[in-house]
Amino acid sequence: MELTGARFKVFIDDNDLEKGKNIDDELIEAINHSRISIPIISKDYASSESCLMELVNMLKRKDDKNHIVIPIFYFVDPSDVGQDHMNIIKRIIRDVRQKLKKENLIEPKRLVVVDRHVQSIMEMLKVDYHDGRAVTIDETLTKVLVISGITGVGKTVLAKYVYNKLCHLYDYCSFCGQIQAETEHGKIVSVQNKLISDLLKGNALKFDCSDKAMIHIQHGFRNMKVLLLLDDVKDQEQLSALVGELDWLGPGSRVIVTSQRADVLRNVNGVESFVLEPMERDEALKLFCRYAFGTDSPSEKFKELSKKIVDATGRLPFLLKLVGSSLSLVKREREWNETLESLQAVKGGLNERVQAALKKSYTNLNEKQQQIFLDIACFFTGKDMRIPYYMWNDYNFCPSESIRALDAWSFVKIGEDKEICMHEILKKFGREIVENENRDEPWKRSRLCDHEEALHVLTEGKGTGQVKALGLEFGDGSVGHSSFEYDQFKNLQNLTFLKLDRAGIRGNFEKCFSMLRWLDWQGAPRTFDDQLQILNLQKLVILDLSGSQVDKDWRGWDLLEKARKLKVLKLTDCFQLIDTPKFPHSMELERLILEGCSKLAVVNPSSGYLDKLVSLNLRQCRRLDKLPNLGPMKHLKELVIDGTTISQIHFQGGSIKMLKTLSARNCKKLNEISDSFRYLKSLKHLALDSTAIKTCWDSIGSLEKLKTLSLKDCRGLTHLPNEIGKLKSLKFLDLSGTTIHDLPLIEEWKAMKVLRVRGTFIEKFPEAILKLNKLEEIDFSSCGSLTGEIPNDIWRMSSLAILKLSDTRISGLPPSISCLSRLRELHILRCYHLPSLPELPSLVKVFRDSDI
């Protein structure tokens, strides 16, 4: 009865045969058409000839490998075990389900590199997962996981794979696919009915009202351990309308949600998030080849073409499968080249199904988010996010909120250096949206990002008020070759972004550029037309003159007086600049970027007027040996002086209290860090790599908010004060290349995630770090003095993912290392004193010599 209730079709032999008679044809037919037989072998089983004949037929079917036999040896009366009888039956059902994989969802047959993702996901879901099998699950918790990523990256495939691995641990499972499409067509109650029917194994009434279904969900599943896969969820409101609150489910339940938005469940406590990125290149090539050639690698004839096609697809599994399948029967190189050209084309090339899916996601963005997305796709991919922020803020586009939304929808990612990253497929999609505004007359589009089209519009004087952004890209060797007159710009009265790229302009521009917020004039010529003194830049917030021939006497500096709203002045690689220009008293500048001004020796004293300055970048100003007066810069949060010749850093008491980042890498003459650092109560990131310092100041422990500290290659640094161990917020510490012999007292490093002491004189694995249970990476590589065995208590470091011990003299790894379920990399190259390896977690990648 329980097997029938679990939705298995069951045939039971409950008729006794007379002695000496054969079993009937109906029973043989039932055995032949079954996938599983369950003989219950009791004490008197062998005395029944008919039972033995049935068993023989079962075993004959087992030999063809399409039939499974699960014998149950049953020697006791059920009344002797009471409630355990039902537990035994439940285990039988679970075993049958696992063997039949009755609940399995359809998934592609040519999967690549899912196991690495699955291992991480199982850890998030608190599942004991070994050798590709989910063994047990923590039944005291209800866990929710969101798998997010851009269209075509494989979210649903991965989610189904995880679901299939888990379903045998559950009696109640449901997969609700394409939720967004269903709910948009008013079918939310049909999705609810499916979910309820799945969980009640078909024994449920159909509801005609969503509210009634919701009440049933709320009260019907509180005591049930369920597994749910909810695919393609738009937002939390949609999810709530479908299944209500996720805590309505019983303990041990697991809910897997796929969405383009990483923050789809931002208000639900304890939600785990897994962001699925495009495949690595070698993995993507393997997947493509499985569909194109039926093998893991390309034929020699199509080897290079295959690699180029893989790159052109953006390494998205959906496109790899689609393109690979379409080329599987194509044998001519010409057709492969045509496919490559269509994928690489800036205009067109997107598969219709991909474009439709992206368009659907795009419509979920509000108007401000859409405009920012198009700006990034056309002009700002790879740019420092903090720069265009000022332009968008001036438009009231709510950039902080909008960028978060775009990130959540996987339209953009923000890199480690704050740069805006966008997938090539999305970049192409955004540009196609702009092109479709008017395919035949580009001067009627909002943005002109194609150089040839923009140049044509200017040279022909075809500009219109519909163009808001225009970018030229002349490339190397074109300095001074192009120049434009006022008449060519006069109809571009709504221009807000202009990239001139080393081109000159001449004439009276008084009535032009009144709406301009960003002038990107990299490579501006040294000569400056006198008529340009009346250039209308009153709304300008960003001025980029990087790589220009400007110097202190450049006549264009007078424009700074008029650009009173200017927030960003970028002068990167202005090699002729010896002294900065004089800054107007009324200036509201927030970011001054002088990086790479190799001749700059003086920052004009008028910099003291910049009391709203947030970031000062003096990186690679190699002749600068003295900091400007920072006292008035009360809002300064970032100070970058890498590669300067500054020899000492001293702060006045009470100054720059808001400083969060100080980077002084490769300041070879910097040998003195004064005790004034104690004033930097807001400091979070400090980098002093390759400086000449010999010791840390004693009050370093007072930097309570410090998260990252890098002292890499400070060769004169021989020891650290114990106060450094009091940095409770420290997450990253790099002491590589110093001459320290041991670590200080580190009892307060509870937040530490990355510890690097590569190439130091450490002699023994510090047992104190075994208490750092959040530590994810340890690097002891090239510590030639490090000897002995790694302590057995390493199992306590439950978060450890990367352990680097190459080029050390360690002599043993403990068996307990097998308990480190999150360990992914073990580096033991040239560890010649290490005789053998203990058992390691299944997904660990070991970097070692072949003879170890």
Explained architecture:
With 852 residues, this protein is an alpha/beta fold. Among the domains are: 2-100, Rossmann fold, CATH 3.40.50.10140; 115-275, P-loop containing nucleotide triphosphate hydrolases (Rossmann fold); 281-344; 352-436. Helix content is 26%, strand content 14%. It has 22 helices and 37 strands. It has an 18-stranded parallel β-sheet. Strands 8-9-10-7-11 form a five-stranded parallel β-sheet, with helices on both faces. Helix 21 links the parallel strand 14 and strand 15 (469-471). Helix 12 runs parallel beside helix 14 (317-327) and helix 17 packs across helix 20. It is globular, with a radius of gyration of 34 Å.
Count of DSSP strands: 37
**Spatial gap, N to C terminus:** 57 Å
Overall outline: globular
CA-atom Rg in angstroms: 34 Å
Q: What tags apply to this protein structure?
A:
852 residues; alpha/beta; Rossmann fold; 5-stranded parallel sheet; 22 helices
Question: Layout of helices and strands, plus pairs?
Answer:
Elements: H1 2-5, H2 25-32, E1 36-37, E2 40-41, H3 49-62, E3 68-69, E4 72-73, H4 78-81, H5 84-100, H6 115-124, E5 127-130, E6 133-137, E7 143-148, H7 155-166, E8 172-176, H8 179-184, H9 188-199, H10 210-220, E9 226-230, H11 236-243, E10 254-259, E11 272-275, H12 281-292, H13 303-312, H14 317-327, H15 333-344, H16 352-362, H17 367-380, H18 388-394, H19 399-408, E12 413-414, E13 420-421, H20 424-435, E14 447-448, H21 451-459, E15 469-471, E16 483-485, E17 497-499, E18 504-506, E19 518-520, E20 542-544, H22 559-562, E21 568-570, E22 591-593, E23 615-617, E24 638-640, E25 648-649, E26 661-663, E27 672-673, E28 685-687, E29 708-710, E30 732-734, E31 754-756, E32 777-779, E33 787-789, E34 802-804, E35 809-812, E36 825-827, E37 845-847
Parallel strand pairs: 1-3, 2-4, 7-10, 7-11, 8-9, 9-10, 14-15, 15-17, 16-18, 17-19, 19-20, 20-21, 21-22, 22-23, 23-24, 24-26, 25-27, 26-28, 28-29, 29-30, 30-31, 31-32, 32-34, 33-35, 34-36, 36-37
Antiparallel strand pairs: 5-6, 12-13
Helix pairs in contact: 2-3, 9-10, 12-13, 12-14, 13-15, 17-19, 17-20
